[in-house]
Amino acid sequence: MSSLAETAAYDVRAVRADFPILGETVNGHPLIYLDSAATSQKPFVVLDAERMFLEHANAAVHRGAHTLAAEATDTFEDARADVARFVGAAPENIVWTSGATAALNLVAYSIGNVSVGAAHGADAAASPYALHPGDEIVVTEAEHHANLIPWQQLAARTSAVLRHIPVHDDGTLDLDAAADLIGERTRIVAFSHVSNVLGIVNPVAHLVALAKDAGALTVLDACQSAPHLALDLPALGVDLAAFSGHKMLGPYGIGVLYGRSEVLDALPPVLTGGSMVTTVTLDHAEFLPAPQKFEAGTQPVSQAVGLAAAVQYLAGLGMDAVHARERLLERRLRDGLREIPGIRLLGDTADPSVERIGLCAFEVDGVHAHDAGQVLDDHGIAVRVGHHCAQPLHRRFGMTASVRASTSVFTTEAEIDTLLDAVSGVRSFFGVGR
Ligand SMILES: Cc1ncc(COP(=O)(O)O)c(C=O)c1O
User: Fold this and answer.
1) pLDDT, tens only, 260-312
2) Which of ligand 1's atoms lies nearest the C-alpha of 194?
């Protein structure tokens, strides 16, 4: 990794010029946006792609026979192919959803529906992924609520048991516990590629191997990896994966469910209606194959076009270069925070083999995260404060809230240094630790 870091090569100043929002001032200071893990900013190419589509090519896709509709359909499907290529997949393995939350819920509901069907005597061969009472779903203690609550709900619907892989003090997963937990009762292993609080890149291949040995389905939450790492989902070997457009320089309202063909073919649709059928009678409907069978209703067309522009932009920078640069920034941020008295990092370790993205969550001793965030905001610095939709993980570290700084392709060393200066002043601002 270090050699990559040394050769990290893209022009950050040129990249900054691509993001119109970076011209904004906040509380009299130039905006320092360190909240990309919550939602990323959008470069001109993404804004332009959506606007150009709406101005010049907008029509309902997969419906009309007129020229504009045919062109819009081609553009929409080209966008799917672009996003597929970005994650090493084929277009038919990419299902558009409204976000990662929707993608994860789609999987959980689809499995829930086949499970309920199986319990009522539906053909077992048609539902290889049906859960039965006592089956187990394994998640980690570090999951975003979007990759936890759908599994809680699925367990409740099917009388399955939800189990979790614990996190060590240093933020890494307890892989010994994982090996003990994942066994013959395990039917699903759902975990994040990168935690949105710890920033640690989890050992996907290791967990996939454990799950495969147990014959369990793997579901990867790739929300925080897709914007930062070169992804090859088929090579990672996961069955299903979810990610979100708005976190990877793309538009709101679009996400992706990736699935291996065999799995997508076997899972039934959740939403039904227009766009996902072949023949419909008053009593019955035949569904299109995946991915269309999961895309009922009018598609998020301009959003898909915007997301394709976003992945092209990221690919143009080079994902290895993006990751290498973020590693540099992450180390500067983490090392700097460690030196500030009264700062406690969540899941910290000096072990250089622990791979991370540019993200640090911390608490300021004696100061509530919201108050710390307010002081940073006074300096024009945007960070996330709260539990970041990961309450169990915060509880694990004995806290209810933290401050999270997260970088993007446009983040500079100087911005990190300004953040560190501002964090250094937080405790004295509140008269703490004197
Ligand atoms: C790790 C992770 N998973 C899932 C989500 C949910 O993504 P969305 O709200 O875009 O559906 C997020 C968003 O914060 C996340 O960070």
Assistant:
1) 999 999 999 999 999 999 999 999 999 999 999 999 999 999 999 999 999 99
2) 1
Catalytic residue among 229, 389, 420, 422: 389
CA 97 to chain centre: 13
Please state the φ and ψ torsions of residue 168, each to the nearest 5 degrees. -70, 170
Does the pTM exceed 0.85? Answer: yes
Rounded distance from Cα 100 to ligand 1 centre (Å): 6
389 is catalytic: yes
Q: Is 99 in the pocket of ligand 1 (CB under 6 A)?
A: yes
Cα(118)–Cα(397) distance, rounded to whole angstroms?
40
CATH 3.90.1150.10 fits 2-42+318-426, yes or no: yes
Contact 351, 203 (CB under 8 A): no
The residues spanned by each domain of the chain are 2-42+318-426, 49-314
Cα 121 to Cα 414: distance, rounded to the nearest angstrom: 63
CATH class of the region 49-314: alpha beta
224 lines ligand 1 (CB under 6 A): yes
Give dist(CA 202, CA 171) in Å, integer.
10
Query: What type of residue is 162?
Result: L
For ligand 1, say whether the CB of 127 is within 6 Å of any of its atoms.
Answer: no
